[in-house]
Structure formats: structure tokens, C-alpha cells
Amino acid sequence: MIDFPKTGVGIGLRRALMKPLQEREVKPVDFLEVAPENWMQLGGRLGQQFSWFSDHYPIFCHGLSLSIGSTDKLDTGFVLELKKFFARHHVVHYSEHLSFCGGDGGHLYDLMPMPFTEDAVRHVAARVRQVQDILEQKISLENISYYANLKTDEGEAFLSEAEFVKAVLEEADCYLLLDVNNIYVNSINHRYNCHDFLYSMPAERVSYIHVAGHYDEAEDLKIDTHGSAVKDPVWALLDAAYQYVGVVPTLLERDFNIPPLDEVLAEVGRIRAIQGNIVQQTQRQSTGRKTA
Question: Is this model's pTM higher than 0.90 or not?
């Protein structure tokens, strides 16, 4: 099995990028991320192409349909299929969204926020533990972008978003996929300080980071699209995240309006430069402590 990358930069494997990536003599990224739902049942030419990538790159899987927060019974058959897929392609890590995307047997085809309550913490954490028991490995949950708060009983106490995320991670004993673009988008849409949220997250649980572009609908409304270049405030927040949690594997998300590979790799290079600056700062600080 390929070892879990401790640092480095990855991109999402999209069909438009497959041929350009295969044509490179030197691997331009350190790992690839896929939604397993998009590849599990594929055979033929595309299945063979995917096998080539899983033979040559560490593969991270970022799920879309587990619906970990749903009140429906957990689809254990789907989790078992995931486990087979992970073994077949040497998948090094699996993450999902801290959300739900279905109920009453139906699928919403969107990631919906959960109510930030203690009951919801216990509910989703129990489901995460069940998934981890089946997979025989810890998973990561991603802090999602959302546009409305779900309220239940008016008399029920609600946690903040940060309190909810931390409580789920602790109760489930799982990792955090830290999405810095989602932090920034939510901070604008829900009127909080993005750095305060970042620094409240448990640094020791961060497995890797997502960074992406978003759409400026208005000054006070940002839409998480993954369809454009990363914006300056998110680059700054990524730098702050490295300062806080250290340099960890980082995934550049680009799901729509996918540009030529060289344009994608220019942003990959910017991530590498930020990571390199942090490493140099850490080395200088370490040297300074030794000579003091």
C-alpha cells in the first residue's frame, strides 16, 4: 500500500485532466483525489485509465453520498463496497462531508447542513464510528459550506458551527478535512471571524486541507463553487492554516470550468511556495532556539 503523504499538493482527478496528466514524464502533483461514487462501477477504457492512476499516484477518496448526518439507516452495503474499492486501488484515505444529502430513502443531490445540537453530535458520531468499524480505519469529516441554519425545537440549545464540528470530531474520534475556502465563505455569509474559527479547530486532528475558488455573489454573500481560481483572502487563510496546524497535504479543488493543466499547476505551484515558506520559517525558528 502507498504510504499516506505527510506533505505535498494534490488535485482532483477529472476526466479532462487524465490524458494531460498521463503525458507528463514527471508527476506534477503528489496525490490525486476522487469521489469514489464516480469510479466504483466503471469498467472498460475509463476503468483501465483509473487503474493506471491508482498504480502511479496515492489516491485520496472524498465521498459525496454517504449522508453521514441522515436519519435514514446507514447504508452498510455501500460502505462495504467502498472498502472493496479502497483495497483494489490502494486508497490511502477516505473523507466525507459533515452533512446529510438524503432522507426517507431519497437523495437530494446536495450537501445539507445539520442542526448544531448535542443530539445531532451524538447521532452523527455514532454513525461515523460505525463506518470506521466497517472500514477498519479512521476517516475525515470536512467542514462544509452552508447557506442557512437548520433549526429544530425552539427550546433546544444550539452550538456554534465551530463547537459542533469540534464536538463531532471528539465524540467520533475521527480526523478533520479542513476546508479553508469553506471557512472563508461561511465567515462572510454568517458574519463571523474566519481566523477565530480556524484557531478553534483541533490542529492535531487535521489530516489534510482543501483549498478552492468561490463566486462573489455580493459583498456579503459568497458561493462555494470550485469553479474558479482561488481568491486572495483564501490564500491568506491557507497561509494562516499552515502557521497553525503545520504543513499537511493540500488538495486544490477545481470541479467546474476546468482550465488547461498548466493553469491548474500554476495554482499548485503557489500552494507549494506557501508550504515552502512555512517550512523555512520553522527551520529558522528551530535554528534560533538551538543557538539561543
Answer: yes
